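Troubleshooting log. The previous run stalled partway through. Resubmitting the same two chains, unchanged.
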Amino acid sequence: MYNLTAPVENKILIASANPLFRKGLEKMVLGRYGEATIVRATTTTSETLDLMESWQPDLVIVDYDDKSISRAEFLRQFVAGDLPMKVMLVSLQASGAVVVYDRRTLTPAQAQDWLSTPQITPQTEALISRRSSSMKHFVFAGVLVLVLTFLVDLLLSTTRLLPVQASLQAQPIDRLFDLEIIAISFLFSLIVVFIVYSLIVFRRKPGQEEDGAYFKSNNPLEIIWTIIPLGAVIGLSYFGAITLGQTRQADPAPLEIKVVAGQWFWRFEYPEYGIVSDKMVMPVDQQAKLTLTSMDVIHSFWVPEFRVKQDLLPGENLVRELRITPTLIGEYKVRCAEMCGTSHAYMESPVIVVSQTDFDAWVQEELAAIGTDPAARGERWASTNGCRSCHSVDGTASVGPSWRGLFGKTVELMDGSFVVVDDAYLYAAIVSPNAQVAKDSIPNVMPQTYEGSLSNDQIADIIAFIKTLQ
Amino acid sequence: MKKFLSIGFVTGMIGQIIGTAVGIGLLAGIRALMGLAPKAEPAAVLGAALGIVGFMIGVGGFRDWFAWAKGEDTYEAEEFHDRPGVIRYWGYSLDHKVIGVQYGILSLLLMALGGTFALIFRAELAQTGMQFISLDFFNTLIGMHGMVLIISILLGISAMSNYLVPLLIGAKDMAFPRLNAFGFWLAVPASIVIVAAIFTGGFDTGWTGYPPLSARAPLGMQMFFVAVFFAGWSSILGALNLIATILRMRAQGMNMFRMPIFAWAVLATSLIALTATQLIGTSFQMVSFQRLFGMGFFDPAKGGNPLLFQHLFWFYSHPAVYIFILPGLGIISELLPVFVRKPLFGYRWVAMSSLGIALVGFMVWAHHMFASGMEEYLRVPFMYSTLLVAVPTGIKFFSWTATIWQGRMRFATPMLFTLGAIIVFLLGGLTGPPLGTVATDLHLHDTYFVVGHFHDTLFGGYMFPLFAAIYFWYPKITGRRMNETLGKIHFYLMTPSFLVMTFGQMAVGLLGMRRRIADYDPAQGFQTTNFIITIAAFLIALSILIFFINLFVSAKKGEVAKGNIWESRSPEWSILPSPAPEHNYAQPFKVVGDPYDYGLKGSKFVETAPQQSADQETRGTHG
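Second attempt completed without errors. Output:
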């Protein structure tokens, strides 16, 4: 099968008056190519030239430093002649290096490579015909690459890959996606076509035992496929940076909305109007400036139709900002995109894009709804502050105790003591929830930040609301 | 019974139980003496840590070092002999081949476990609503799936490097055999501790463990931290050993550019593992201390900053991705020439591109944080550095393509997996740029698109090459070949299923499905695709089950592998018999040519006869 020591009929001529040079090289060559190699040695210029004429060796190795061999005469004969052979002028004077005839300095290892290139027995015609057929394959594969690029790009650009585009910021982002899809289609086709073409055309057919074509490296080619991708990625980064800049363009007079996230709710505050809501209502075609903060862990604000995303961090010094200009009237959802604990999957709230008129109407409606009944206000605060995501009002069990029938009840605490739920207990349980945890509840779940985020009046309203749930 | 108690694994387990009990008892005792009520968390952490130390003492990992400390003599590593038979894989051994197989077994076990976690939550995701499991269990499973498989990958890489590197470079063993054994056995108790996380309340953070969520997660989080800390330690020790081995123990004549290309990949990987792994240990340790001692590193209320954690974490965890894939890419480069019967195109460029990837890999971590709220001016520079990774990766792809071009390809099972690896890794690579450019990443970050992307890179860069390597080198371990038909069924079942799975993941991700959600909104229209993804996941599991059956059955019943079955030029095939004997090469070999000169008649990579070199002789007398 693939016998690595197959006999190669090499004829090698060594020209040197120095017997040590001759014997040393002869031993090395025989050791390298095996017994099939015939090595003959000569000591003078004329003898060498005669043998080159009559014996026609494949390789001639001339001692560069031997004064008895005229290398000028020898080179002239060699250059003028048309014999297909390799000549190597070897100098062993420079220690650790071998000088060959074109005066390149090679290390011993490189000289061995040079010796072992298969041109020792050139079959020039076969080589040329193989090159031209290889070129044919190359061109054919190249055409296939272009065809496949077109097809893949067509497939990807006609499939609906992204959700509806509903913001100004989404437009440059989607254009960048299109550019990237073209690049992906081309690179995918380039690699896949050449590999698959090779698998099909050059694969080992039954009965074929020889190895593949021997080519090993090509530095210009390697440099080309380093430089071109380098240029491409710098170009892509450049467009990427421009696109990022476009998504961050700030209008001078945006609508300000403060977005507060907590486990597991969203709250939207409109400081201009004094409205707090559990859904985000936005007028179309007006930029909104969102200031984002979290009450507990990291959350992430993402409406897929708007494309842009920003994490919300806890901490007053870590408030972040996001600009969104909705362009399409409709109902969407903000979906928390950063793992935030148990109910992460359900941390979604409505985002409603309306006309300016509808927005004004909604503002009026909200302002009117902040009425005079403390319990009604409390119900509002409870839903806008996320209380309801853990506390039900109809008695069903959830993460926290249900509020139905809670007021006036006697509950067992974790340390085994009992407490009656009254105004004072409820107030304490809201502002420092870990102080007296009921036995069947889990400590450390409820945010400990309500003392800062709710006013005492609001807490009183919420307690008033709980009292009504009997 | 006495025989049973002489097995290293058994004594190690006993040590771990005792260590854990001591740790818990110690802390409970101290608190009792101080008149405080017992507290579960500190006791559990100390118990887990001492349990690991106990295991190491039990298994004998410290024995020789203790002996040296007392001034006693021990045997040399070359005099070490294993117990005959399969029992040797259950105890403390100094033979790099035995340790390699031990790493492999543990890695495959964890792979099966981590895969099973995925099957459970994939079943849950087949439909909207919660059907089988609770939200908290789901959240624990996704984090466990991630970290158990990351540890499995690290061990799998160690398995390949440990088994192959000394064989490929002609060394008798690793540079530090005792350190090698220590590194492996450390991973065993660490694996036990991470599994314990499920039974101690789990954790709901995903594998990334971001605070403040991880600072308030259940006790399982601490088990996770302890396990990652020790597994990381094991990885660092292994990397150190591999670097020393590759730099110092190569055969005569094997200069750096005549090393098998896999050794280059392992060198690059080990450099990353040695220098970056500390950072994940540190970041998790800081969260652990925040929980235990109230040190507010990441707590804004105490002047800390949660973003600091993300920087520390990704400074390891991004390069870690290259730790996972570089050895696999090395396997691809190693196997391609054998099966296309052609030289590896541009050997030096391929070798240098591994180092290039390793270097650039250190400068890109913040691309995981484009939406995190870090300083905004950091985003554009990190986009440039991230996309730079495409350059050395591109060199690899182009070089593989040029290697395959005009090759006389033979489609044995290892080759199929190598080809699968190239295509799947290509998909992983090509889905990278949309994530690397900030603007598009703002849409894609933390979606299923990312999930699809990294499953492509990890299957293409690790799983497929791992299977290729197992099918290829299995006869060197057992002396028998794996069943070719079952191998092909494995490949033709897994590859299309896998592609369907990741394409599905990317599709729903683009449309807006978030990562790590236990349930999804039916209004978004993901149900059909999610159902298909689940089916595909189960088909992948089925194909891997077939692989495991093949693995076990072939060890006893496989076709006997005689001689150089792959006609490889590499020394472990051209010189060594199968299975490889103890202490490898009886007689050192000498490198006389390039490793991948397939198609060059009369050339050789290695030869055994230690002969006086002709050129040296000539130079000596002539000059």
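Takeaways: Chain B touches chain A through 106 residues (CB under 8 Å). Strands of chain B lie at 590-591, 606-607.
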